[in-house]
Amino acid sequence: MASDTVFGTFTPPGRAARLAYRPLADDTVGGLVDLLAALVTSGEARAFHPHAFDRHTLEALCRPAAGPRDEYWVAVEDRQVVAYGLLRGWSEGYEVPSLGIAVHPSARGRGVARSMMEHLHDVARDRGAIRVRLKVYRDNAAAIRLYAALGYRLEPLNDREFLGFTELDRLEKESAA
Ligand SMILES: CC(C)(COP(=O)(O)OP(=O)(O)OC[C@H]1O[C@@H](n2cnc3c(N)ncnc32)[C@H](O)[C@@H]1OP(=O)(O)O)[C@@H](O)C(=O)NCCC(=O)NCCS
Fold first, then answer.
1. Whose CA is nearest to atom 48 of ligand 1?
2. Topology given in CATH for the domain delimited by 2-176
3. Which of 110, 145, 154, 160 to mutate to test the pocket of ligand 1 (most atoms within 8 A of CB)?
4. What string of DSSP letters covers 120-164?
5. Beta bridge partners of 23
6. Is 163 close to ligand 1, i.e. is its CB under 6 Å away?
7. Residue 76: what pLDDT?
8. Better-predicted residue by pLDDT, 171 or 40
9. Rounded-to-10 torsion of CA 54, 60, 62, 67
10. Per-residue CA distances from 98 to 46, 62, 72 (Å)
């Protein structure tokens, strides 16, 4: 199953270095604590706050309750956790997972987010999802550009946020074309 698999490495040409995708586990919780602390320091926890950032919370995510589980993945480069990606909603009974992503400030601008997004889309597809949704603050220009580049259609959710959707089979057809 996808969440038990180490996907090896992925190297977007000329951009990100070797990235290994791993389901969040005890040996990567420390690295994720560091990444999330860096977001707090940079003030970006305002844009990305899927859950509490403490170690206890992250350790609990490694041990989901029985039933449909959500997906929590890290991308590791040279032993550093450089990105965090999640797909949630299945554990609450939703068919369409909600995607979240954050890249360590020291690893930005090299295609790491784009690569992690593509990995999360593969995971969602493997789990049988046909769509993915996400929410993004209207002032988060980098994330909005990232999502638009990956085919998300954004619509107003409220005065602060957009709601975005993409169809996974459409993404597959586009990348095969
Ligand atoms: C948004 C974020 C994930 C982008 O990570 P990244 O690894 O730097 O992004 P990538 O290098 O993969 O860039 C992919 C695309 O995103 C867009 N993008 C990334 N950084 C950007 C920036 N500073 N300004 C404008 N667009 C940007 C571009 O479209 C870029 O494609 P291009 O390089 O071909 O122009 C990162 O800035 C981040 O973690 N921000 C804090 C957390 C957050 O806001 N998460 C999203 C919550 S909804």
1. 136
2. Aminopeptidase (3.40.630)
3. 145
4. HHHHHHHTT-SEEEEEEETT-HHHHHHHHHTT-EEEE-SSSEEEE
5. 73
6. no
7. 96
8. 40
9. -140
10. 18, 18, 12
CB of 103 closer than 6 angstroms to any ligand 1 atom: yes
What confidence tier does 2 reach under pLDDT thresholds 50, 70, 90? very low
Closest CA to 28 of 68, 70, 71, 84: 84
Ligand 1 and 161: CB distance under 6 A: no
What confidence score (pLDDT) does residue 18 get?
79
Give, for ligand 1, the residue of 87, 108, 165 to mutate: max count of ligand atoms closer than 8 Å to Cβ.
108
Domain-by-domain residue ranges, the chain? 2-176
pLDDT tens digits, 25-69? 999 999 999 999 999 999 999 999 999 999 999 999 999 888 899
| pTM strictly above 0.70 | yes
pLDDT of residue 169: 81
Cross-strand pairs, 156 = 162
Contact 170, 129 (CB under 8 A): no
User: How close are the terminal C-alpha atoms of the chain, in Å?
Assistant: 27
**What pLDDT sits at residue 29?**
98
